[in-house]
Write a structure and sequence with these properties.
β4 (about 35-40) and β5 form a beta hairpin. The termini are far apart. This protein is an alpha/beta fold. It folds into three domains: about 5-90; about 100-215, no CATH class; about 235-375, Glycogen Phosphorylase B (Rossmann fold), CATH 3.40.50.2000. It contains ten helices and 19 strands. The relative contact order is 0.10.
């Protein structure tokens, strides 16, 4: 029996000592908030990180009485004891103390990835080379705190070193910052995402999230030379082994991708009916499920866990892809596999499905064959 264990029940995490719960944590990933309670609630910790903003507040209470509070504003971290300021330090010092030791001094410019798969794919495919040229980067380094970014970097720009730092600190205001002889460029800032969402709300059909990336970085969007995705040989081999285990017919299959983090999920029955109709036409069905938030009871399909690069290698062989609009959709564009993509409203703000389609439409991207993509808007 392990001394310390952790159990996940929905959005609640139980921390146990010799099987006895001594702490529990309730999280909300969408707005980065959590509550922790120790010893039956005698000690409580509340943390609030505000969406599209660098502000953060953490409160530690003893018997519901506030003892310590920590506040960040994108520039400084201030610590209070019983409402009295006891410490204030620049946030850049946190990066300097915790992370600078991992960075080789030979590098001049550090590109810090602070986005999900869709924007990261667009950046490296369409924007990165122009940004390197503008900055006159001699020895660039990429830093990420998400492991799947490593795969995207390896597939689109394998010649650039990429460093994974799990807990890298992102809550610094602005598009860039300097520490010693390094220049850090944020890809992308909170201010950038706030601008893109505002554009979507105004329903300005001339606006587009790729155009916004060029504007934020001060680049001209003309004469873009897209990078080409490279298949990772080891990932293709691993994918083939997994497909052999689940007995997927690689000569006649379709990929279904029903999940998304930002867009509202379609009804489970929609996917069940789609899967059953395609199966009746003789296709084998592979469903890409990550969060396990869709109930496909009554549908016959195959599934297994795939890395990003393995999923890409699989999609190269598919007859067609049906997907809820997500960052995973962009990632599969280079496969040239026919797609049917469904746009729904954002879950946690007032951006409609039509506005999402206008701002994040795939057919507005460069080097896209419109005959391969069908976009469907669901209000």
């Amino acid at each position: 029996m392990k001394i310390f264990t952790k159990e996940q029940i929905g959005n609640k995490t139980l921390f146990k000592f010799l099987g006895i719960v001594y702490c529990w944590k309730v999280s909300n990933k969408q707005n980065s908030r959590y509550i922790k309670q120790y010893l039956g609630g005698i000690i409580k910790t509340r943390r609030y990180s505000y969406p599209l903003c660098c502000d953060m507040k953490q409160i530690i209470c003893l018997c519901n009485f506030k003892i310590i509070s920590i506040k960040e504003d994108g520039i400084n971290r201030s610590t209070f004891l019983l409402n009295y300021l006891i410490n204030k330090q620049p946030l850049l010092n946190i990066i300097k103390k915790k992370f600078l030791k991992y960075i080789d001094r030979k590098h001049d410019h550090i590109y810090v990835l602070n986005a999900n798969s869709g924007e990261i794919y667009l950046f490296f495919k369409y924007v990165f080379d122009k940004f390197l040229e503008k900055n006159n980067s001699k020895s660039p380094l990429i830093i990420t705190s998400k492991k799947y970014h490593l795969e995207i970097v390896k597939m689109l720009c394998p010649e650039i070193p990429c460093l994974y730092l799990k807990n890298y600190y992102h809550n610094i205001k602005g598009e860039s910052y300097n520490i010693e002889n390094f220049i850090f460029y944020k890809i992308f800032s909170h201010e950038h995402f706030l601008k893109v969402e505002q554009e979507a709300r105004t329903s300005n059909k001339k606006a587009h999230y790729l155009t916004a990336i060029f504007e934020t970085l001060g680049l001209n969007a003309n004469k873009v030379v897209p990078r080409k995705m490279q298949v990772i040989a080891q990932s293709e081999h691993a994918m083939l082994e997994k497909m052999n285990k689940i007995k997927l017919n690689l000569d006649n299959f379709i990929i279904i991708s029903p999940e998304a983090r930002s867009c509202e999920l379609l009804e489970d029955s929609f996917w069940v009916n789609l899967i059953n109709n395609l199966a009746q036409q003789g296709y084998d069905i592979f469903v890409n499920i990550v969060e396990d938030c869709v109930d496909l009871s009554g549908a016959k399909y195959k599934s297994c866990s795939l890395s990003y690069s393995e999923a890409y290698a699989l999609a190269l062989r598919a007859k067609k892809i049906y997907s809820l609009r997500s960052g995973f959709t962009e990632f599969l564009l280079d496969t040239k596999c026919p797609m049917e993509v469904y746009y729904t409203k954002f879950r946690h703000n007032n951006i409609t499905a039509e506005q999402i389609h206008n701002e994040y439409g795939l057919l507005s991207l460069p080097d896209i064959n419109p005959e391969l993509i069908k976009e469907v808007v669901y209000e």
